[in-house]
Amino acid sequence: MNDLISIPGKIWNTDIDIVLDSGSRRSIIGEDLAKELNLTPAECNVCLRVVNDSIVKPIGVVQVPVTFKSTTYLVDALVVSKFPYKLLCGLDFLDMCNAELNFRTKSVKIGSDTYKINETFFQTTDKVYVCQDSVIPAFSEAMVPVMSGTDFGIRVLEPAPHVLQQFGTLVCGTLVEFKNNCSAVRMLNPTNHKILIPRSTTIANAFNVFEIHAMEDKETSNDNSELPQLNIGNGLLKHEKRNLLKVLRKFKSVFSKSDGDIGHTSLIKHKIDTGNARPIRMQPYRKSMAEREVINEEVQKLLDNGIIRESNSPWGAPVVL
C-alpha cells in the first residue's frame, strides 16, 4: 500500500488503516470488517464499475463512525465482498470533510487534523536512459537496452519530447518491467537512414504503476460464461462493447453453447403420411467392427442431444456412412 494515501483511524474502538482514494466516488468497507463489527447492511440500489470494466453489486450499505485524531465523521460505506482494504474513503467523504492534499508539505489535512504522507507517494518518476550506443536501421524499429533508477517492478514510460526533435525517432509509451535497473524499450526509426542513439541519452520518464485491485463480480462472470467465445474485434468503443454484451446476454438462449446444442422450433411440424402402405424394413448393410463403433458413437450423440429417441417400429432403413 506504499503508493496509496493511508492514514490511521478508528471505527468505534477498532484501530484500522484508512485508505483515501479520490478516484472512487463512494466510500467502501470490506465485508470481513463489517462482519467483525457486527454491522447489518441495509439494501441499496447502487452498482460499482471497477477497473476491469465489470459491474460489482455491493452487499448493502452501512453507516459507521470514523474517528481521526480529534474528529468523528459518520460515513455511509458500501459493503463489498473480497475487498482488499478494510475501509476506503472516497470522494463523498473527502468532500464532506474538506480534505486538502498539500504537495509542498507532503501532507493531507482531514478537517483540523494533518497527516504526513509516505514519501513514496510523491516519488513517482525516474529518468530512463540508453545504456549503450544503439543504432536503429532505416524504416525499422528496435529494442533498445535502457537503465533507470528503478531496481525492480513495472513502470509506465512516457516518451521524452526532445527525442523526436533531436533524433527523429519515436519511443513507445508502454508498460516496462525493470530488473536490476535494466530493461528494453521499443524505438521506431521512420526515416530513410540509420540513426545512432548515444549512450546515456534520456529517452523517457518512468512513472509508478499504482496497484488497483479489481473486485470479482460473480454474477457478471456467470452471465459471460454462458455465452460462446466471442470475437468482437477492435472496431467498437468500450461503451459500445458493453452495450453489445448486454444484448447478447439478454438473448443468450438463441446461441448454441456446443455442437450438440442445435435448438428447435415449435412453429413448424413435420410428418410423413404413409397412408395404407405396408411398412418397409430393409436389412442393415454389412459393416466392419470399426464402422460399427463409429455408428454407435454417432447414434449415442443424437440420443444425448435429444435429436432422436428410441422406438420400436416396423419401418426401418440401414445407416449410411
UniProtKB/TrEMBL annotation:
This is Retroviral aspartyl protease family protein-like protein. Keywords: Endonuclease, Hydrolase, Nuclease, Nucleotidyltransferase, Protease, Transferase. GO terms for biological process: DNA biosynthetic process; proteolysis. GO terms for molecular function: endonuclease activity; nucleotidyltransferase activity; peptidase activity. The keyword ATP-binding does not apply. It comes from Leptotrombidium deliense. It comes from the Eukaryota. InterPro entries: DNA/RNA_pol_sf, Peptidase_aspartic_dom_sf, Retrovirus_Pol_polyprotein.
